[in-house]
Amino acid sequence: MSLVQKRSVTIRGHRTSYSLEKPFYDDLVTIAAERGMPISALVAEIDSTRPREANLSSALRLHVLDWAKRGALQVSS
Predict the structure, then answer these.
(1) Which residue from 14, 34, 45, 64 lies 20 to 30 Å from 27 (Cα-Cα)?
(2) How far is the CA of 20 from the CAs of 27, 55, 69, 73, 76, in angstroms?
(3) What is the pLDDT tens value at each position of the chain, 77 positions in all?
(4) Number of domains in the chain
(5) Strand partners, 16
(6) Residue 67 sits in which domain range?
């Protein structure tokens, strides 16, 4: 079984895909649930704020990393 799974999503009427390792995808699901939104909406939001030269998969990983760092900072405060 592959460590990276490819997923498809429609963003602003355009079908696209991203590839993520399961732990990153699981954290995206958690973030979306915490915010009360579908994962597709979260992916679309992240896509709309990423620099155009940035890869969507990388932008999603960086979003999860930022979320995890903020959580770690709250715990240590």
Answers:
(1) 14
(2) 11, 12, 19, 25, 28
(3) 568 999 999 999 999 999 999 999 999 999 999 999 999 999 999 999 998 888 999 999 999 999 999 887 776 65
(4) 1
(5) 9
(6) 4-76
